[in-house]
Structures are given as structure tokens and as C-alpha cells.
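Lab notes, practical 5.
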Amino acid sequence: MKKIIKFAVPALVLAVIAAIAWFAYRYFAGEEENYTFKTEKVAVGDLVSSISASGTVEPEELVTVGAQVTGKIMSFGTDITGKTVDYGSRVKAGDILARIDDELYAAELREREAQKKQAQAEIAAANAAIGQAEAALIRAEFDWNSADKLYRTRATSQSAHVAAKATYLAAQADLAAAKAKLEQSNAQLAIAEAALVKARRNMNYCVITSPVDGIIIDRRVSIGQTVVSSMNVSNIFLIAKDFKQMQVWVSVNEADIGSIKTGMPVEFTIDAFPRDVFHGTVKKIRLNATMSQNVVTYIVEVDTNNSSGKLLPYLTANVKFIRARRNNVQVIPNSALRFRPEARFIAPEFREQTLDSSSRYVWVAEGSFLRPVKVKTGLNAGVMVELLESELKTGDEIVFGVTEKKIEAKGSEPGKSPFMPTPERKGPRGGGSAANRARSEKSGQ
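Output from the prediction step:
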């Protein structure tokens, strides 16, 4: 028993000392928790629900001008200002853009013209031959009839009768041959005329003209360069028909394409004029989707007016498809709807209250605690949400978070141990007259 007491007494003393030290630390150097609520006021503003994407500015209609014949570029034409056609030149329909060497095609044209004349001469000869054959046939027919009558009366021999008949049949055959020759000559003339049309067309193709009014965006050949036309037409110029109307080709993710509708309003900006907002409407949704890294995207065509001329081809556009817009409505931050406070921050009378899961709530501060306020929301624009119905008014503050901070307790100094000795104060202590006189004397020295 004495051994137990011998060990229990020191342990009890150590426990008491530890408890006193802990309380001393908590009083002199301990810390107590404190917090403040993050609040935001109910405001009035405009909300826009949109889908963001990026796209490229494109001319509304592009025309590719090519060479349909093979040859060397001899020269370029002139634009509406009289300057040589080049990048950015404005041209009208019918203006000459370039000329191709036409010597070979001119020679071919002359050859086809000669062939046509030859075919026409053969037709004339065939017609003459038909006339001769018809005359011969008439005579042979007369002779045959005379010989046949004489043979019936036994006035001529059988051999003369047969010879007259043979001559008549030969005349018929000659007439048929002459007519066939005419048909052949007519066919040759048709072939010659077709070849002549082709030769003339190839000759005309040596002069390349603009099919539309527009601006030359790209020139892909130089003087002296040979263009080769085979199965595919060689592209020489790219012309934008009209810059007053432009399009934006926007790549839209498959997750958002269901919300895009024809006629939907669109707003976009370009890096060249970051402060300007351009407007347009959805014209078409292309169905030939593309896949890149397992992401499916669709091209959406957006029409926009470019009367200002600021939009240039192939600029990158930052696009927003406007799904809905609300003007001059009460708005609250979306974070306030997501905020769920801990029970210790909620006012005691509301801690046991079960909130309706089908409703939405925000929290307002009343002193050091929070109370829930039921709200009905409308359009969600991401950061802000439209407030439709609630007891809140414009300017009321709602809580969207808590900031906790630690404040050091009274009786302690930062970084100072409570067990360190306190230095002795210099100067008189107390608030009596003697102490005051000593202080004034010291300050006057």
C-alpha cells in the first residue's frame, strides 16, 4: 500500500502541474477561433445565357477561277483602278485577269476551220454526184422501158434486153451511192464544226476573265509560270464575291449542338478589334461532323453584316450563341445557391429545421448566425442567376461563404512564451500626482 501511495502522489502532482500549465497556456498564449461571412448584395442587372465557341470569319461566297487549258501565263489583266491584278484587287465580271500563250490553240483553230471548209466542199461534190446519178438513172430507165417493149414484140434480142435492164439497175445503185456519200460528207461537216467549236473555246480559254464582281483574295500563279490542265482545273485566282456580307464558321461541340437553332442571335469579337462586338444569326448547321481526339464537332454557319469593312477573311472569332437574355432583373451569385453552411453557423432555431429538397435557399446573416431564405430562380447565366420570387429586396446581403480567422487571446504577445520573465519597467509607476510630476520632469529634461 505504501508503494502505491509512493508512486500515486508524484503522478497526481505531475497531473496537476500539467493542468495548470495547459490552462495558463490557453489564457496567456492560446488562440480562439473567429469567422466572418462572405456576402454579396442582391443587385439589378442584365443576364445573358450563352454557349461559347470559336470560329473563323469567311466570305459569304468564294469563287475559284481556274485555267481550263494548258499553257504559259503571258500577262495579267487590270482591275477597276487600272492597276495590274494582284492580291486585294477589285474586279468586275468580265474583266481580264490573265492571258495564256495561245499560239498552239490559234494554229489548231485554223486547222479546224480548214477541215470545216473541206467538209463543206465534199458536201457540194456529193450533191453534184447525186445530180449526175439521177440524170443517168432517168436515161437508163428510158432505155430499159424501150428495150422491154421491143423485146415483147420480138423486135430486139434478149441480150440487148438484159443489157438495158442491167444499165438501169446500175444507175439506181449509183444514185444510192451518191446519196450515201452526201450523208458521209454531212457527218464529216458536223465533226469539223464540233472540232471548230472546241478549238474556238480553247482559244477563248486562253483569256481568263472574272465571272463575278468581287475582290481577289489569292493569286496562285506568276507571269511565265505554266499551268497544266488535266482532270482537275488549275486554280489561279480566288475571288470573294461580296465583303458586305460575311460568315463565321463556328466549331460547336456535340454537347452544345442540341441548343443551337437556326435564326439564333449570335455575338462575337475578334482580336483585331477587341472592344467591338459584332452581331449575327445562325444560318445553317452542317451535318458532316468531324471527330478529333474522340471529340465530335459540327460546323455552324453564322451570317453577319460587314458594312463597316472591319471583318477580314480568316480572322479568328470568339463567338457566343445567345440562348436567352434578361434585362433589368434582380440577380444573385450562383455561389450563394451552392453554399451549404455548417450547423455551428446556423441560428439555433433553424438547426433542426429540414429544408425542402425541391426548393432552393440562400442564407442571410443575422448577427453571428445565419438563417435560410427560400427563393425561386429563373435564368442561370453561369456566375449570376435571375431571382424571381423571394422576400429579399435589392441591396439585401446574402452569404456565399465563410472566412475563418484566428485571433490571439488576451494576455499574450505574439511569439512570446508565458513562462519567460517580464522585463522591469523603467520610470515611475502609478497614476498619482507624484508619479505625474516625475514623468513631467523626465520629459522636460
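Observations recorded by the TA: The chain is about 35% helix and 35% strand. The first strand starts at residue 31 and ends at 41.
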